[in-house]
Design goal:
Layout lengths: L1 H9 L22 H4 L9 H22 L4 H8 L3 H14 L4 H8 L4 H4 L4 H14 L5
Helix pairs in contact: 3-4, 5-6
Pfam family, one: Phage_integrase
Protein name: Integrase family protein
Keywords: DNA recombination
């Protein structure tokens, strides 16, 4: 919400929408309050947002390859990233930082905690680490 408020203010809008405001959540690129303030406008499409995210990751991958040619494999992985990858990363980070799983579920719009529990990587990591530390055979 903080970032959405900052985004709206950057566009010259109030931090929070008014009750009757119909401004889309994400405006087209180069939108400003002057040309999209309170008038009806089209939101940024999913396809356009997807293309922007892919372009950012492609640029980051190209920069990584340029700076460090030995990082080509990492750049290839980065180039495959997407908006969904960011969503999954956000869910994993919330779970790793022990945000209540019900809140993570609600933030991600999942219908079930079972789906959200897939983000509990830290529990697996902790289980493996503790098992490794405390259940050694000492050959």
């Amino acid at each position: 919400m903080t970032e959405l408020s900052r985004y709206r203010q950057h566009l010259g809008l109030s931090a929070l929408p008014s009750p009757n405001e119909d401004t889309p959540l994400v405006l087209p690129i180069a939108a400003t309050a002057a040309n999209h303030g309170t008038e009806t406008c089209s939101p940024l499409t999913r396809a356009a947002l997807h293309a922007i995210v892919k372009d950012v990751f492609a640029g980051a991958a190209a920069g990584l390859r340029e700076r460090d040619p030995s990082a080509a494999a990492r750049a290839d992985i980065l180039e495959q990233a997407s908006a969904h990858w960011l969503r999954h990363s956000a869910g994993s980070h919330m779970a790793d930082h022990q945000v209540d799983l019900r809140l993570v579920r609600d933030n991600l719009g999942h219908a079930s905690l079972t789906t959200t529990s897939l983000y509990l990587h830290i529990d697996d990591d902790r289980r493996h680490q503790e098992t490794d530390e405390k259940h050694r055979i000492d050959w």
